[in-house]
Amino acid sequence: METESEPYVRLATLRQLHQVVTDLNTARSLADTLQTVADGVIAGLGYELACVNLVRPDGDLVVAAFAGNAAAEALITGRVGSRASWERRLTMGEGWGDLRFIPHTEGWVLLEDDVPQWYTEGPEPRFEDEWHPQDRLYAPMYASGGGRELLGVISVDKPRNGRRPGAWGREALQMYASQSAIAISNARLRANMQRALVRLEREQQALRASEESFRQAFEYAPSGMAIAEMGGDQHGRLLRTNDALCRLLGRPAAVMRRYSFADLVHPEDIGLLLRTSAEGGRAELRLGRRDGSYVWVSLRNSVVADTADGPRFLLTHVEDIEERKRHELQLAHRASHDSLTGLPNSAELRARLSARLCQRPYAVGPATAVEALDAAYGAAHDGRGETPGHAVCASGGFDFDPVPGGGPFDHHVHMTAPEGDVDDGTKGLAVLFCDLDGFKSINDRFGHNTGDAVLIEVARRLTTGVRDGDTVARLGGDEFVVLADGLGAADAADLAVRLRNAIIPPIRVDGRAVRVGASFGIGWASCGMSVEEVLRSADQRMYIEKRSRAKVHRRAG
After folding, report:
1. What is the largest CA-CA distance in the chain?
2. What is the pLDDT of residue 492?
3. From its phi and psi, is residue 476 left (phi > 0), alpha (psi between -120 and 50) or beta?
4. Nearest Cα residue to 177 out of 146, 137, 224
5. Helical segments of 465-528, H only
6. pTM above 0.90, yes or no
7. Residue 475 exposed, middle or buried by CB count within 10 Å (0-12, 13-18, 19+)
8. 294 pLDDT exceeds 90?
9. Nearest to 97 by CA among 13, 40, 167
10. Of 11, 77, 219, 393, whose CB count within 10 A is highest?
């Protein structure tokens, strides 16, 4: 079972991966890209040593970059290993997806081959998944497309935690190798394009040859390329697009010439496109396909200039990053959601609750005639009416006192709670703390598999019983929390009863009917309270409610 801190570790790793992948795309040359790949393994994946082996034109692999140890870098950088030796290594050991792990029990036969290697020292492993100094882990880098052309191999050593990577670490390393392959391919493509552009500018006597070279690099580039007009009334209009871009957007070249990127970009991304500078500008945004869907792309612009006349046109490199974005969303979802039930986890629950609270309590009191007039004018002026229990804090609106930690124009909807258990008409953010009754006995009698199935079904029933905008989160173990906004005291009590009644019916697991009960405590989120205070209040009310009910009503059936 995952530890409580693992979502935070995954989120931190995701942030580090996002940064190092961003660094891959900002390297200026192939050599910088290769060194950035090696440095990214150290900075973002938790290894102390990393080596990038690049496939040469003759098929052999050369050590092109190294990170983590200056002495080892001086020893093996520039040395070459034969393709046959590398292919042998990539078929040995254990296959972890595209990764290849060779444990020390098998790797001793590789000590005498011609692949450049370094030797690390360390104690013998004390437990099964501890990293051995002679363990080897390789991440092949393949070119995009169906051919799986090998571009190189990343080899890593000495994980900082001293253990072999788990499923999360393997997936992160494999995704990083995939992104590194794209970055290396793009670096080579950019180098070719830059050489073609230099020839266009400087080799006036060989203009036709240079134009042909540019045309081929443009037309046959594996990623999208476009040439757009610069200046004048038609600024930004697409003059020419290659086949890769036409296939990506599902539009023929003749149709593409009717548009500019401003016509194709997603409405939410138009501002980002306009802010992207022409010279060296880069942006990640969505472009529209012919079928009405949108695809995530990375746009990189370069100005092609004439030495005499100045800028002539804009060359745009369009890279499909849909898969990378999907992976990022998946990793972000895994870091913020419970792996068993799919519900938001404790960290995500606290983040959502914290976003609704501020440090200053708000008290709703009787208004004077002048205050009532001011409030009525303010609501009519900005077209916004406020429900009881919520108040807008904005300097220049209803409340002139600044919110601690906020700017002079920050807007925040204050959260207040109903007074007592009597419904006084106040609406607020109800926090329902749910603890299952009798769940431990199910785990003890039928095993954890049955207990997991019960938790999954309870999560489904809770989700079905709330509104679309409400939050159902798993706090841990058999504890759940529901956030429901806009409820009064009676509404919250009714919701607790409905959810309890939804949980009570028998749950069938492997042909066996089991039952659990549920105790609910209702707390209220109010500005001036911390997240922990809100949860603790609901937790205490849940235990009061649990103790007040007869034991027979709390046991699982």
Report:
1. 97
2. 92
3. left
4. 137
5. 489-503
6. no
7. buried
8. yes
9. 167
10. 393
Query: What do you get for the CA distance between the two ends of the chain, in Å?
Result: 26
Report how far residue 489's alpha carbon sits from residue 467's, in angstroms, rounded to the nearest whole number. Answer: 17
Higher pLDDT, 357 or 232: 357
Partnered with residue 139 across adjacent β-strands are 154
Q: Two tokens at 317?
A: 């490199």
Residue with tokens 């390789």: 138
Q: Is the dihedral of CA 493, 495, 498, 502 positive or negative?
A: negative
Are 238 and 251 in contact by the 8 Å Cβ rule? The answer is no
Asked whether the beta carbons of 546 and 505 are under 8 A apart, the reply is no
Going from the C-alpha of 313 to that of each of 226, 229, 301, 302, 403, the distances in angstroms are 10, 5, 10, 9, 50
Q: What is the spatial distance between Cα 216 and Cα 291, in angstroms, rounded to a whole number?
A: 29
Tell me which residue of 259, 248, 299 sits closest to 277, measured CA to CA.
299
Residue 179 to residues 14, 40, 288, 495, Cα–Cα distance (Å)? 14, 11, 24, 47
C-alpha 276/C-alpha 297 separation (Å) is 14
Instruction: Read off the tokens for 35.
Output: 């060194």
Classify residue 40 by burial, with Cβ atoms within 10 Å: 0-12, 13-18, 19+: buried
- One DSSP character per residue, 51-119 reads EEEEE-TTS-EEEEEEES-HHHHHHHTT-EE-HHHHHHHTTSSEEETTEEEE-HHHHGGGTTSSS----
Residue 404 carries which side chain, given as an amino acid letter? P
Write the pLDDT tens digit of every residue in 234-260. Answer: 778 898 899 999 999 999 989 998 898
User: Which residue has better confidence, 276 or 487?
Assistant: 487
